[in-house]
Amino acid sequence: MLEVKNLSMRFGGLLAVDGVSLDVQEREIVxxxxxxxxxxxxxxxxxxxxxxxxxxxxxxxxxxxxxxxxYKISRLGMVRTFQHVRLFTQMTVVENLxxxxxxxxxxxxxxxxxxxxxxxxxxxxxxxRAAYWLERVGLLDLxxxxxxxxxxxxxxxxxIARCMVTEPKLLMLDEPAAGLNPAETKELNQLxxxxxxxxxxxxxxxxxxxxxxxxxSDRINVINQGRPLASGTPEEIRHNDDVIKAYLGxx
Amino acid sequence: MAANNYRHALFCAxxxxxISFPILGFNLEAKGVNIELTGAKTSTIVAVILAAVAVFVFxxxxxxxxxxxxxxxxxxxxxxxxxxxxxxxxKLESWVLTGIVVLALFWPFVVSRGSVDLATLVLIxxxxxxxxxxxxxxxxxxxxxxxxFYAVGAYTFALLSQYTGISFWMALPIGALLAGLTGMILxxxxxxxxxxxxxxxxxxxxEIIRILLNNWTTLTGGPNGxxxxxxPTLFGMEFGRRIKEEGNTSxxxxxxxxxxxxxxxxxxxxxxxxxxxxxxxxxxxxxxMPVGRxxxxxxxxxxxxRSLGLSRTAVxxxxxxxxxxxxxxxxxxxxxxxxxxxxxxxxxLESAIILAIVVLGGMGSQLGVILAAIAVTILPELxxxxxxxxxxxxxxxxxxxxxxRPQGLLPMRRIHITLNKQG
Lengths: 251, 423
Ligand SMILES: Nc1ncnc2c1ncn2[C@@H]1O[C@H](COP(=O)(O)OP(=O)(O)OP(=O)(O)O)[C@@H](O)[C@H]1O
Ligand SMILES: [Mg+2]
Hints:
The structure holds 2 protein chains of 2 kinds.
Chain A: E1 2-11, E2 14-24, E3 29-33, H1 40-47, E4 55-60, E5 63-64, H2 70-76, E6 78-80, H3 93-100, H4 102-105, H5 109-114, H6 117-136, H7 152-164, E7 170-174, H8 182-199, E8 202-206, H9 210-216, E9 219-224, E10 227-232, H10 234-239, H11 241-248
Chain B: H1 2-24, E1 26-31, E2 34-39, H2 42-60, H3 62-71, H4 86-106, H5 113-138, H6 147-164, H7 168-190, H8 195-215, H9 217-220, E3 237-238, E4 249-250, H10 251-254, H11 261-288, H12 290-300, H13 302-307, H14 312-338, H15 348-361, H16 366-382, H17 390-404
Parallel strand pairs in B: 3-4
Antiparallel strand pairs in B: 1-2
Helix pairs in contact in B: 1-2, 5-11, 5-14, 5-15, 5-16, 6-7, 6-8, 6-14, 7-14, 11-12, 11-14, 12-14, 15-16
The complex binds adenosine-5'-triphosphate (ATP) and magnesium ion.
Adenosine-5'-triphosphate is lined by residues 11, 14, 16, 34, 36-42, 83 of chain A.
């Protein structure tokens, strides 16, 4: 469903991403790993439309999407989280999820002003969907808190829930386990697998936690200094000499 | 550290001298047909030097001065207390607002005509500030040319009445819609700009519209303005002594009471009151609607908002358009109240006053905006003798405000949607 071909991104003199390719099938978890500064987040930024890539193609469901503005990409069904959590901190938890459903709620303004039955129905179903996902990530009790007051792990889960209420086809997670304790990481592991199995979402995962990556990935792409180093199943990556040398070896 | 302070203070003092001496230190005097440049009185020069010394002292000991200011009791006795629970706060605010409206309804019947007239002006400012609040407070767009849309509303009514004899009630929606449309057209190219740039460009737009009105004499009458703008009618009843428009009846004759000029003033006041209440209610509604949340989301974290499919341009444009719409609303009322408008009513100072109301009131908060509008319009009237120093007092008030309570008198706490079925 997603194919990234020969992607490159240049910042002035720095070639941050150089010839990276990637493909993701329906209901698949594909990971991108690599040392710090390898260019992983930059790949995401290109895929989600934050940057216009300097070269290469990104094809989502048969359509070239490189260079399309970010908000349109997410409307196509590719939604991301951020390496440094980005919530609307002064809004409540449930409101964060309502903002994400803006598109579903986008009836005309007059309907909203008059409070027509149709509008109320949509508001309610948005609230229901929000409640469903809050329950799913274990935040229902905190629904009316300000998002900024949540603990770090809870913020990470809220960010994922906020993506899921948009009903995406492809979810891009940038280091979702960063800063989580082992118990939370385990929950996250189950959550990601369930997103794929129960909700038919494909996942592209950037992660430094190797046990998580090895455990849930269907395939793994390794990049190093912007260039692709290896790709394959977790088993293949584990035994790839280049990878061991360049990456796992250091750890 | 200290040496640095003194150098900075010396610099500021010199700047004060350089700026004020040419302005205050010389007089232009008419001698016969010629104008002559003469030195000012010694007292003025002494005052300028004293001012420079004052600047020097203040800058040199700025840290201790600011420290003292910080220690002064907070303006708000509630500061430091835990914020009220949302449900309680909402209830309290609605009660206070309802109370104000009820008071406002009866009030014109017990006070003088001049006060009612002034109160109408306050209501117009409230409408303007509530509209600008959407743009600045909720959407976070610094618009320094807001008065342009106010002018569009007022001139729409003035011109239409002059050329087509339109009535107030017809002009009200047309003026507001045209102002909204202008907002949309002007907003489209500029909303990509951020922060300071947006402020400067909108400032420019405000001036362009005013200059256009001033110079397009064939249409707008230029600096002479347009007069004879009709007052609102009540179901075809006019409030003047004699009927101006054919087919209308007159208010005092219909009810068989003696003619009084007060009826008209009170009627206008009541219309402004109703429109201000409608404005407040509609904007409150917007705040709870998806657009309202989108404004806030975009203001809080634009990148996250865009990653969720919110189009920056569309969301900002909606705020800009809605803000302009209400300015047009207020402009129509203003034109009707004055009966005469000219570009002089739409100078940058007006934009600044409206913005000051929004900032003083606590961006985004409606009750705060209403209180601030009352304060900003009425205080200068009470202190007529000081009217020359109005801007000075204004500036000082703003500076003090920023030191004491940067979040405004009543900082905004948007009404949050709550999820009831908690686990
Ligand atoms: N907007 C930008 N302008 C200039 N250089 C950038 C920009 N964004 C990223 N870079 C550079 O590109 C390189 C790759 O950065 P990137 O954030 O993609 O790495 P990463 O693989 O996500 O690293 P980490 O594991 O630390 O998150 C880095 O050298 C970074 O400094
Ligand atoms: Mg990164």
